[in-house]
Specification:
Elements: E1 3-9, E2 13-20, E3 27-30, H1 34-47, E4 50-57, H2 64-79, E5 89-96, E6 99-106, E7 112-116, E8 123-124, E9 127-128, H3 131-143, E10 146-152, H4 156-175
Parallel strand pairs: 3-4, 7-10
Antiparallel strand pairs: 1-2, 2-4, 5-6, 6-10, 8-9
Helix pairs in contact: 1-4, 2-3
Length: 190
Amino acid sequence: MRAYEVERITKETLIKVRLDVDGTGVCEVSTGIPFLDHLLCSFAKHGSFDLSIYAEGDLEIDDHHTVEDIGICLGMAIGKIERKNIKRFGWAIVPMDEARAMVSIDLGGRPYTVANYKPNREHIGNFSTENVIHFFQSIANNGKLNIHFEVIGENEHHKIESLFKAFGLALDMATSKDDRKDIVSTKGVV
């Protein structure tokens, strides 16, 4: 089984993440940010990952530390995935009504994020849309992967949800087993 657990405790948050790469889309998430719970379950369902996240954060201040630390922990879990015998690269395009997200990733060991996303409004519930890019940067930096994404549309809910679904699909592709691949790098290491 490729299941990975990460725990992070700071003065601002307590985060527990369990990611089963070979799951079926089962999601148990409690972050204190209902829209983020919905997004993470969309990621898990479309990526066929079993995902468990428990988060306590200083939401009385705002959602930034909680969103960031969940991204850090999810990135750390992704960083634990064995890079041998997987496809390494993944991509997806997800339309959702008037919105569309395109995501491409590389589990090549180098963190980088290229994001084309401009929010039309500041919040969805108690989730700050300015945290979307930072969330994915936190994943990339801690999981040592490239994440490139572009999101277009009018409805902010649709835009962000299509992004999380596309990220799930792209990560599922990149982590797919392929015994022909060994380490997918001309260097022989990732």
